[in-house]
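Mods, move this if it's the wrong board.
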Amino acid sequence: MTNADVPPLGDLEIAALEDIWRFGTSDAKTVYSRVGRSRAITLNTVQSALERLFRKQILHREKVSHAYEYSAKLTRQELIGQLVESTVRRVAGPQSDVLISAFADLAARADDDQLTRLEEMIARRRTELDES
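Not the wrong board. Structure tokens:
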């Protein structure tokens, strides 16, 4: 899957993914007990959401005994990065100036702590690029 191919996620998919990020590898029954019951949905609905996340290449799965166990294939940061890049490519196309301008406008509305962290991240990325 390339970054441009990240499909959108539904609310239940996000909840299931959040659960796996928080608690680690889990089978559908376990995710259902933590996510599905409070939503008054069925185990089959949770199983379908996990299957969709697997097909979207966001989760790994392994057959253990009679059930699949699911684990995160992507970290939260990796997924967010791919979703942002995918969305920007669909909306802005190849016009990187549009993205940079929109990002600069967003950064201008941030507080001082966020701007300081952003500056540190940019400096770190520049150092990494120079070293490679």
